[in-house]
């Protein structure tokens, strides 16, 4: 323990570069459209992601209506059903979750939490959003193209993705899908480089890496992973586009379609799967790690307790990020790849459960002996732990190669990944919005509406996806618009109808959330500065909401980690990161 | 209070649902009971962890919820506790992984006594091929496919001549005889899936995949496709019938061989034209 000296900033190195003003807006276009303020870009990203997410929500209703009441809705043909599931999956995974965690929360929180005035490349940051916007427009356009959007499943496996037996396969659907993904990846790369360089280069004085909030650790690690993983999808998309438009055969062997010999030959469909999942598995953690980071901070603030085992939490994030690059083929146990891969990928996959379990323990241990305020962010965090734990544990079934054999491609898989990378991260997104809404707007979201939203979403989502595992256990395959088979008892239809009703209700509750945002923007209680009494840097800005440039005259200087809550002997139950004294009771730096 | 009670309720309802709900796997009809056992072990380990963590969380929320005057305990980390938890988790994971890998080894090791058969998938139907008297499947290639030769068998391969080709019919297999199922597709990905057998594997155009199993009870079992293969995916069905050996032999005697197909195949009479391939 070091004592307080006369000069509170002693021991903190001086700034290495001069403090430059960020590029201010000069007119309508540069302020409201091509803004270079990361906070505004964050809102553009989030707004676009939520808008296209609403499309995915409606699609999920249609999917569930078909599954719960097959044959009742005549406009849902098999073609339409496959288009719905494909677009629902792709929108949720890439265009909503990835975009909102990295483009939304990343943009808003990185500069504020590390004490920077903005992202290091504001112009590129602006371009990043507009590329993303273009990607969303191209994606949405496929709904109106001849033949409609692709119905190849969100995994887009060739050969069927580009053949006539699949909706959009030989028309516009698959082309627009691939072009949209290519645009998204270009846009993301611009944003991602920005996030990573800002974290590495633009932290304020005293903000060492091991003083960063876990939110930043999660977003930073996810960004680095995305920069390494998305190129695999990029090349896969370009190659499939060539197969589709130029007649190359990267992924296409010689084949006979409906009795007709096609001119393809020599390619391998399995290579596409390797490329797809080399991206696709890290993608799961690209969504999960920011959620891990954010939820750690929400729990610490609202339990008035430092996150338990901070260093372990940081290393767990980094180790999970690294390991997630060598587990991809656990999506391919029954793909026909060499069976010996099963030994390797099952082992790596189950090893990744260990650092993940440590994170769950540490969240729960942070609650232990805390001062738990059951605010909306805390409730959503609790909901996250339950759903993530549930979904993570069922991952141990699917990761364990031989147990996966009967379960793969069944509704068990659908239930698992919705619980673990659908419901759980979305719980965190909601918790985070309830938490940071006052920072963004200066107003609180309505607590009453928030409570209804939380309970319906949490209990409802659990009621959707927990029983769905058992539909899969019966043996019902995924991607079936209806299931009639001798081995499926009639009671499964009843269960499916129940799940559908739950899904419709949960979906409706999300509209209440949107109404809450609109209502609170105008009528919400004014929050004042730092309403949650949080220690991390983003709440210590001179203005609320922070202005362009974030910090007023001088950049803050950081003296401690982000978790000095309930420090014995301190005058309040939190000490802000830029508060020079008293000396920290606990220092992990040597 | 309500929050803690809800968390407890979630655990209770989940456990009750697992124990009393009617939704469970179909009765097994193959030797892969090992897989079911591993699955049940996994259920117990993960179920215990789920209940323990959520109940502990419920207790924390109940015991340490905010009241005026409460101050949180200050404890940044505890190496001892973290090491213990890591070790216990690693042990639990190993307890699931080890039997899993042992069973996987069995799953991919085909016994020498296994009969080889072939399943061929196309949008959206199943065809089958049995090796005939010589016990060997002849070679094949999608480039050979024609209306006369729907599975693309090599007409110059002497092992192919006596192969039994079943197009549009059901597959019969003898009870108790290990069988290696070779899987081929002529167009897109498919997956030969019979829930009662537990085993499944994708069929990939351009290559031959496989799995093996031993049928353990007679009966009729529905075949489904488990890998999205286009708009007919949900309706791509067939049947496998597991027969007592005598019934199987009787059925086998009625089947057509490849050599008999173009000449004696009634279904194809008069339709053989445009045969570009050999």
Automatic annotation (TrEMBL), chain A:
Membrane topology category: Multi-pass membrane protein
GO cellular component: membrane
Transmembrane residue ranges: 40-63, 83-110, 122-145, 172-193, 214-242, 284-301, 313-334, 340-358, 379-403, 415-437, 449-470, 497-519
Keywords assigned: Electron transport, Heme, Iron, Membrane, Metal-binding, Respiratory chain, Transmembrane, Transmembrane helix, Transport
GO biological process, one term: aerobic respiration
Keyword hit for Metal-binding: yes
Cited InterPro entries: Cyt_c_oxase-like_su1_dom (IPR023616), Cyt_c_oxase-like_su1_sf (IPR036927), Cyt_C_Oxase_1 (IPR000883), Cyt_c_Oxase_su1_BS (IPR023615)
Superkingdom as given in the UniProt entry: Bacteria
GO molecular function, one term: heme binding
Domain Cytochrome oxidase subunit I profile: 32-559
Matching Pfam families: COX1
Protein's cellular compartments: Membrane
PANTHER family the record matches: CYTOCHROME C OXIDASE SUBUNIT 1 (PTHR10422)
Protein family membership: Belongs to the heme-copper respiratory oxidase family.
Annotated protein name in UniProt: Cytochrome c oxidase subunit I
Organism: Limimaricola cinnabarinus
UniProtKB/TrEMBL annotation, chain B:
Transmembrane feature ranges: 41-62, 83-104
GO MF: copper ion binding; cytochrome-c oxidase activity
Swiss-Prot/TrEMBL GO biological process terms: ATP synthesis coupled electron transport
Membrane disposition: Multi-pass membrane protein
Localization per record: Membrane
EC number: 7.1.1.9
PROSITE patterns assigned: COX2, COX2_CUA
Pfam families: COX2
Catalytic activity: 4 Fe(II)-[cytochrome c] + O2 + 8 H(+)(in) = 4 Fe(III)-[cytochrome c] + 2 H2O + 4 H(+)(out)
First-listed, main subcellular location of the protein, grouped into a coarse class: membrane
Positions of the Cytochrome oxidase subunit II copper A binding domain: 112-254
SUPFAM superfamilies recorded: Cupredoxins (SSF49503), Cytochrome c oxidase subunit II-like, transmembrane region (SSF81464)
Keywords, sorted A to Z: Copper, Electron transport, Membrane, Metal-binding, Translocase, Transmembrane, Transmembrane helix, Transport
GO cellular component, one term: membrane
InterPro entries according to UniProt: CcO_II, CcO_II-like_C, Copper_CuA, Cupredoxin, Cyt_c_oxidase_su2_TM_sf
UniProt similarity note: Belongs to the cytochrome c oxidase subunit 2 family.
Protein name: cytochrome-c oxidase
Organism in which the protein naturally occurs: Limimaricola cinnabarinus
């Amino acid at each position: 323990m070091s004592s307080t000296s006369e000069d509170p900033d002693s021991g903190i190195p001086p700034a290495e570069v001069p403090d430059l003003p960020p590029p201010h807006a000069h007119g309508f276009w540069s302020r409201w459209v091509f803004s270079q303020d990361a906070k505004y870009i964050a809102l553009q990203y989030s707004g676009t992601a939520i808008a296209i997410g609403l499309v995915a929500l409606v699609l999920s209703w249609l999917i569930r209506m078909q599954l719960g009441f097959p044959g009742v809705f005549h406009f849902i043909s098999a073609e339409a059903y496959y288009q719905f599931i494909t677009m629902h999956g792709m929108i949720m995974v890439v265009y909503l979750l990835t975009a909102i965690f990295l483009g939304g929360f990343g943009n808003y929180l990185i500069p504020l939490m590390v004490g920077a005035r903005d992202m290091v490349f504001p112009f590129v940051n602006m371009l990043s959003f507009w590329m993303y916007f273009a990607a969303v427009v191209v994606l949405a356009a496929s709904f109106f193209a001849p033949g409609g959007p692709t119905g190849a499943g969100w995994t887009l496996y060739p050969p069927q993705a580009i053949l006539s037996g699949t909706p959009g396969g030989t028309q516009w659907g698959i082309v627009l899908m691939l072009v949209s993904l290519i645009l998204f990846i270009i846009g993301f790369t611009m944003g991602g480089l920005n996030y990573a360089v800002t974290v590495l280069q633009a932290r304020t004085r005293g903000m060492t890496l091991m003083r960063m909030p876990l939110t930043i650790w999660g977003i930073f690690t996810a960004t680095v992973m995305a920069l390494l993983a998305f190129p695999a999808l990029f090349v896969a998309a370009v190659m499939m586009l060539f197969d589709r438009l130029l007649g190359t055969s990267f992924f296409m062997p010689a084949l006979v379609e409906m009795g007709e010999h096609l001119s393809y030959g020599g390619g391998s469909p399995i290579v596409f799967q390797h490329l797809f999942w080399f991206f696709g598995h890290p993608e799961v953690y690209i969504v999960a790690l920011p959620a891990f980071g954010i939820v750690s901070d929400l729990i610490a603030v609202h339990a008035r307790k430092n996150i338990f085992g901070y260093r372990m939490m940081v290393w767990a994030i980094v180790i999970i990020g690294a390991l997630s690059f060598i587990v991809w083929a656990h999506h391919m146990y029954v793909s026909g790849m060499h069976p010996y891969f099963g030994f390797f990928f099952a082992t790596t996959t189950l090893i990744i459960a260990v650092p993940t379990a440590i994170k769950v323990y540490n969240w729960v241990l942070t609650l232990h002996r805390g001062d738990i305020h059951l605010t909306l962010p805390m409730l959503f965090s609790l909901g996250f732990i339950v759903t993530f734990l549930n979904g993570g544990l069922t991952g141990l079934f699917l990761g364990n190669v031989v147990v996966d054999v009967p379960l793969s491609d069944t509704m068990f898989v659908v239930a698992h990944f919705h619980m673990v990378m659908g419901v759980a991260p979305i719980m965190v997104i909601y918790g985070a919005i309830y938490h940071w809404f006052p920072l963004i707007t200066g107003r609180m979201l309505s607590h009453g509406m928030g409570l209804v939203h939380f309970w319906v979403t949490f209990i409802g989502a659990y009621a959707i996806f927990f029983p769905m595992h058992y539909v899969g256990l019966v043996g019902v395959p995924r991607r079936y618009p209806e299931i009639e088979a001798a081995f499926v008892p009639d009671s499964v239809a009843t269960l499916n109808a129940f799940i559908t009703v739950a899904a419709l209700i949960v979906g409706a509750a999300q509209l209440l959330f949107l109404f809450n945002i609109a209502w609170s923007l105008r009528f919400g209680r004014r929050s004042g500065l730092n309403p949650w009494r949080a220690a991390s840097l983003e709440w210590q800005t001179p203005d609320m909401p922070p202005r362009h440039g974030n910090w007023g005259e001088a950049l803050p200087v950081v003296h401690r980690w982000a978790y000095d809550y309930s420090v014995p002997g301190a005058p309040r139950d939190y000490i802000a990161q830029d508060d020079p004294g008293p000396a920290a009771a606990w220092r992990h730096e040597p | 209070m309500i929050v803690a009670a809800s968390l407890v309720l979630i655990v209770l309802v989940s456990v009750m649902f697992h124990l009393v709900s009617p939704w469970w796997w179909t009765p097994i009809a193959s030797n892969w009971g090992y897989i079911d056992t591993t699955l049940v072990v996994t259920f117990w380990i993960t179920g215990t962890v789920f209940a323990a963590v959520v109940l502990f969380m419920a207790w924390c929320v109940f015991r340490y919820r905010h009241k005026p005057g409460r101050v949180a305990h200050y404890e940044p980390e505890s190496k001892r506790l973290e090491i213990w938890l890591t070790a216990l988790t690693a042990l639990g994971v190993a307890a699931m992984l080890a039997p899993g890998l042992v069973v996987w080894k069995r799953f991919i090791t085909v016994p020498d006594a296994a009969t080889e058969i072939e399943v061929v998938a196309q949008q959206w139907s199943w065809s089958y091929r049995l090796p005939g008297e010589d016990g060997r499947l002849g070679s094949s290639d999608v480039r050979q496919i024609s209306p006369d030769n729907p599975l693309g068998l090599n007409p110059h391969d002497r092992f192919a001549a006596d192969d039994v080709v079943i197009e549009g019919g059901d597959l019969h297999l003898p009870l108790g005889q290990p069988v290696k199922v070779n899987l081929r597709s002529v167009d897109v990905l498919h997956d030969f899936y019979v829930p009662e057998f537990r085993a499944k594997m994708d069929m990939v155009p351009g290559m031959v995949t496989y799995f093996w199993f031993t049928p353990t009870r007679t009966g009729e079992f529905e075949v489904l496709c488990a890998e999205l293969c286009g708009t007919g995916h949900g309706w791509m069905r067939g049947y496998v019938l597991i027969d007592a050996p005598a019934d199987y032999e009787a059925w086998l005697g009625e089947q057509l061989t490849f050599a008999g197909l173009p000449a004696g195949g009634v279904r194809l009479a008069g339709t053989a034209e445009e045969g570009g391939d050999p």
